[in-house]
Specification:
The radius of gyration is 19 Å and the shape is globular. With 322 residues, the protein is α/β, with parallel strands linked by helices. Strand 7, helix 6 and strand 8 form a beta-alpha-beta unit. The strands form 2 sheets. Strands 5-6-4-3-7-8-10-9 form an 8-stranded mixed beta sheet, sandwiched between helices. It is 26% helix and 21% strand.
């Protein structure tokens, strides 16, 4: 109930930030959506949730990113509406946290890239505020669909100026001195054609500050679930791994891909301020997802935003250590 109230409040320009603005997709043609998931109700709900937590729409969230996702050194409490209230830590703790010079985000299954690009815009706006130390913003996206990777890069280039893009390369940004300018806001996009975040589990263990996942959650026969094909193998858009159906086909209870992602999320999420956002429907049995994350990994899962879309309810689950 509270998640539904919060989702409605978010749409109010008076009491909330208003509907999130979808990043520009003018660079895409209708034919592109034959191969890549077109933004829909679940996308808009995720954007609204990100805007609530990371947008600078009122003083209570202005410039802090909710204190969970970016290691900002702020404690967070939550009132009955779900609003994030900020209380600074003491000076020594804040300085320790500020030693971290970057914010790392990860989107599993990037599609058109609008979620990551929107989050990048919000975080950049925070960095531009007076008194904010400029940190490198590193955005990692993955997808099993090569077209989604291509489209996401185009979406980033369309909406973000001076973004550096690397393909299937896990670069140590801190050591890449040729591209570092401490006086400028820096954004980096790393794209990986892979299954979830499988090749990143070692190198990014405990390093992801903000994780986004709009999984294939629709209950289907298990054989319809997308399977990753090695990029060296012969594959075309009609294969299950690259087809548009792979973006929504979730197998039994819509949980095949979701269940596979849970241990990866727990491995990657930074402690103690890391935060993950995942879209689910009621058929996915989100209470069971919450139990798995709590009992196996000590991660708290709560419904954050919830909204009816046609014949189903969509929910953004929020995962934190607090």
């Amino acid at each position: 109930v509270e998640a539904e109230k919060l989702a409605k409040l978010c749409l109010s320009n008076a009491a909330g930030p208003g509907p999130a603005s979808v990043p520009s997709l003018v660079h895409l043609r209708m034919a592109d959506y034959n191969n890549v998931y077109e933004p829909s109700d679940d996308t808009y709900l995720m954007l609204d949730a990100l805007n609530w937590d990371f947008g600078s729409w009122n003083d209570s969230v202005n410039g802090n990113g909710n204190g969970n996702g970016n290691g900002s050194g702020n404690e967070v409490s939550e009132d009955t509406t779900g609003n994030r209230n900020i209380a600074c830590k003491d000076e020594n703790e804040r300085n320790d946290d500020d030693e971290k010079n970057r914010i790392t985000t990860l989107e599993l299954g990037c599609g058109t890239g609008v979620n990551t690009v929107f989050l990048a815009q919000l975080l950049s706006q925070q960095q531009q505020q007076e008194g904010q130390r400029k940190k490198k913003l590193v955005h990692i996206v993955t997808d099993i669909n090569k077209y989604a990777i291509q489209v996401t890069k185009r979406t980033a280039q369309q909406n973000i100026t001076n973004i550096s893009i690397d393909d299937d390369v896990d670069i140590d940004i801190d050591k890449d001195t040729d591209r570092i300018d401490d006086n400028q806001q820096q954004q980096f996009l790393q794209t990986h054609l892979c299954d979830l975040a499988t090749p990143l589990l070692q190198s990014k263990k405990g390093q992801i500050d903000i994780l986004i996942f709009n999984p294939p959650y629709v209950p289907t026969p298990d054989e319809e679930v997308g399977q990753f094909c090695d990029p060296q193998c012969e594959s075309d858009v009609t294969s299950v791994s690259a087809s548009i159906e792979a973006s929504w086909a979730g197998g039994t209870n819509g949980r095949v891909v979701i269940d596979k992602s849970l241990p990866q999320i727990a491995t990657l999420l930074s402690y103690p301020h890391g935060v993950a956002y995942m879209i689910t429907v009621d058929d996915n049995q989100p209470e069971e997802i919450a139990s798995i994350m709590r009992d196996n990994y000590g991660i708290i899962v709560k419904p954050f935003f919830r909204r009816r879309a046609r014949n189903e309810f969509l929910t953004v689950l929020k995962m934190t250590y607090q």
